[in-house]
Amino acid sequence: MKDMSEGYTTADGRKIGGTMMEMKNITLRFGGVVAIKDISFDIREGEIRAIIGPNGAGKSSMLNVISGFYIPSEGEVWFHGSKRPQMKPYQVAQQGIARTFQNIALFKGMSTLDNMMTGRMTRMKSSMAQQAMWWGKAQKEESEHREAVEKIIDFLEIQAIRKTPVGRLPYGLQKRVELGRALAAEPKLLLLDEPMAGMNVEEKEDMSRFILDVNDEFGTTIALIEHDMGVVMDLSDRVVVMDYGKKIGDGTPDEVRNNQDVIDAYLGVSHD
Amino acid sequence: MAPEKTPAGELCSVPALLARNARVHGASTAYREKEFGIWQSWTWIAAAEEIRAMALGFLALGLERGDFVAIIGRNRPAHYWSMIAAQMCGAIPVPLYQDAAADEMAYVLEHCGARFVVCGDQEQVDKVLEVHDRAPAIEQVLYNDKRGLRKYDHTNLNWLHDIQAEGRAAHTRLETELDARIAELTYDHTCVMLYTSGTTGKPKGVVLSNRNIIETAKASSAFDHLTDKDEVLAYLPMAWVGDFIFSIGQAMWTGFCVNCPESAETMMTDLREIGPTYYFAPPRVFEGQLTNVMIRMEDAGRFKKRLFDHYMAVARRVGPDILDGKPVSGMDRFRYWLGDKFVYGPLKNTLGFSNVRVGYTAGEAIGPEIFDFYRSLGINLKQLYGQTEAGVFITQQPDGQVRSDTVGVPSPGVEVRIADNGEVFYRSPGVFVEYYKNPESTASTKDAEGWVATGDAGFFEEGTGHLRIIDRAKDVGKMADGSLFAPKYVENKLKFYPDILEAVVFGSGRDTCTAFINIDLTAVGNWAERNNIAYASYQELAGHPRVLDTIQSHIEEVNRSVAEDPMLSGCQVHRFLILHKELDADDGELTRTRKVRRNIIAEKFDDLINALYNGSETVFTETEVTYEDGRKGSIKATLTIRDAAVSEPQHKRMAAE
């Protein structure tokens, strides 16, 4: 593989920067089960990085390690050139990492707008008392946050459902709201756990466009897990392939597509 | 303040009116647009400055006198401004339908030879770039919404705001030139060119002069007492003449505020927030709103439903009379007042009609029930009859003389006459100059004395002097037995049922009439839900036997009412089918203003028409459909054909007795 430590240029001419996050020899155990076994890879500034693999390969576990929800049994996570100490998920969020979930995790009874405002939580400076009393810094702060959220509403074209409780929205739109909430945190690194799961073709096309636009407009680095191979190959700059907790491939979509181990993992191989 | 015929240099162009408004109404709000969840607003002074900067920017890019500037986008202040800025430079704005496919756009862009194109967003830019080789005159493309366009080649592509900044920077160099060009504009300069939607053949470019637009705006503003305190919501296509007259002509003349919605989907919310005083909508918008109200009332609790039914009955009985100022008993007035507190007021508020002083509907016939519903709530909804070629107004209904079956009396300054064959002709200061690059059509439409043929057949009602339109003159034909065939008359009766979205009646030169029906998915879908009818697609619902039953009963009811008309009793529908797809402008079946293109439909569904006449009970068909992005696909279906009972015409019954 070519040396890319100083960044590289993608096929469509986007400049990708240096290493943002590096996973060094990550192993994750749950009792006797080894979910992730000695995996290393990196995520670079400005790229769209996909993690793929068959069911149970450990993809979501890997995303949970990145987001700080799981603490790896062995190995180190390096972020912006320094080793990340053991952190609570909210501390990771404060570092500029936001995520969406495989099974939508929105507040169903709250409106789209309110859900997205919660994404600004880590950026609120006024105290809870001030916010509860609508007093002092809280007033000015809320209008600033509202403005930031409105820009994202505009970006995702969900103005019409601004005040609608998300529980009443169709699935595809809920996914979009969840993306909006993650974007509201203005993340440097955005983690998407199966953003297209359960969508029809049209919704997938919309979501793909939004993912590309997020990357393009805000320069957000994106790491995503996805099952739909067509989507993965079209969207991502580089792909990590996992199988049974091990890394079996890493490279550009073309490299991965022609990797014999990957083909075997996906199509099955006879053992005689 | 009112200008005489042609006062040189004074108020004889839109830019001149803008300058007047900035002077007279300077601090009041000229434009509002909802963006980022908030209504952003511009005063007349601020708007004038923005427009001027844009015009200077156009000059810097080399816009010449007489150039055409195409504008493609949804209703946004910057798009309106770009039209006025183009006029300031002596150029001619040509607004296009934003939902047109690239192919349709190519024809218009090529025909007018636009040098500059102002696009709303990436979608429109893509379409323009796609057809660039077919419209080689295009030199500069400008866009309003930056999103997604960062990586495009910007050699001849500019952000509208950058152009404004450039214009501001270069103002000392270009100001003299701009002022000279504004001062040159006269009443006879072209104000705008609008393409007709074209129910037949290619669209035609209607050239409207400043005289046409300003005289029309002046007369119509006076007719409805519009003032600078009025508010309108600009949401209808910018390429449509009505929007140009309301949002530019009348807004500039009276100085009222033009409000632009946030997006097409939020239109209803925005309407409610703004509460316009002057409102315009085609019948289908009113129909859609009424259908929504009725669907929601079906789902309401028993008490609310009874309250609604009771007071709506009161409103239907006395509401229109109260609106027209006719005598109504004190008790009824009290009941109506109560109803207003409990039902009408909140309902109008929900619909966004609380402040509507004047509302218009036009373009198609409106169902009497729909019309009466709004009138009975106390909304002053009226009808007008117009054309692009007339600068909209031909006839309109004065306050107090409003009925659903006429289109009113000739507008101020308009003369109307009916030719021997029944066709309506008119002459007015609003009559267009010519069809661009099409002298034959100009000559066949407008005669030397300025009389314009509408292509519609109609007559003046005796006693009231109101005009009634029967149908397109060329659609009115004869059936095999020589009786009159007026398809629109029957179609309109059918379309008044909420279940029926569109109907197309055939029968010219035949023994009997037959019809294609399009169901309204909102209304029929809701009905299906309440009756536990499962369906997976539009096609499946359209083919459901119980839906066919319902439509059949509607058709038979219409047949009974058609039979009562001695002239048109031959137009009863004998057989019908429900189409497996919605008629769509993308497939060329409707115009962009949603008018039925009869010939194209007849050609395309030739097999279905044959089946309607050869007595078969089902027919298999395969239809090509075009998706929004221009890709093509096909749908297959087996359609059921039903017979509908026809009634014995009343006059024949009487003759037999």
UniProtKB/TrEMBL annotation, chain A:
One of the Pfam families matching this protein, by short name: ABC_tran
Presence of keyword Nucleotide-binding: yes
Keywords from the UniProt entry: ATP-binding, Hydrolase, Nucleotide-binding, Transport
A Gene Ontology cellular-component term: plasma membrane
Xref: InterPro entries: AAA+_ATPase (IPR003593), ABC_AA/LPS_Transport (IPR051120), ABC_transporter-like_ATP-bd (IPR003439), BCA_ABC_TP_C (IPR032823), P-loop_NTPase (IPR027417)
EC number, UniProt record: 3.6.3.25
Protein name (Swiss-Prot/TrEMBL): Sulfate/thiosulfate import ATP-binding protein CysA
Species this chain originates from: Actibacterium lipolyticum
From TrEMBL, chain B:
Keywords, alphabetical: Fatty acid metabolism, Ligase, Lipid metabolism
Matching Gene3D superfamilies: N-terminal domain of ligase-like (3.40.50.12780)
SUPFAM superfamilies (alphabetical): Acetyl-CoA synthetase-like
Transmembrane segments: none
Tree of life domain: Bacteria
Tagged with keyword Secreted: no
Pfam families listed in its UniProt record: AMP-binding, AMP-binding_C_3
One GO cellular component term: membrane
Family matches, as InterPro entries: AMP-binding_CS (IPR020845), AMP-dep_synth/lig_dom (IPR000873), ANL_N_sf (IPR042099)
Protein's UniProt keywords contain Lipid metabolism: yes
Top-level enzyme category: ligase
Molecular function GO labels: long-chain fatty acid-CoA ligase activity
Domain AMP-dependent synthetase/ligase: 19-436
EC number(s) given by UniProt: 6.2.1.3
Name the UniProt record assigns to this protein: Long-chain-fatty-acid--CoA ligase FadD15
Species this protein is from: Actibacterium lipolyticum
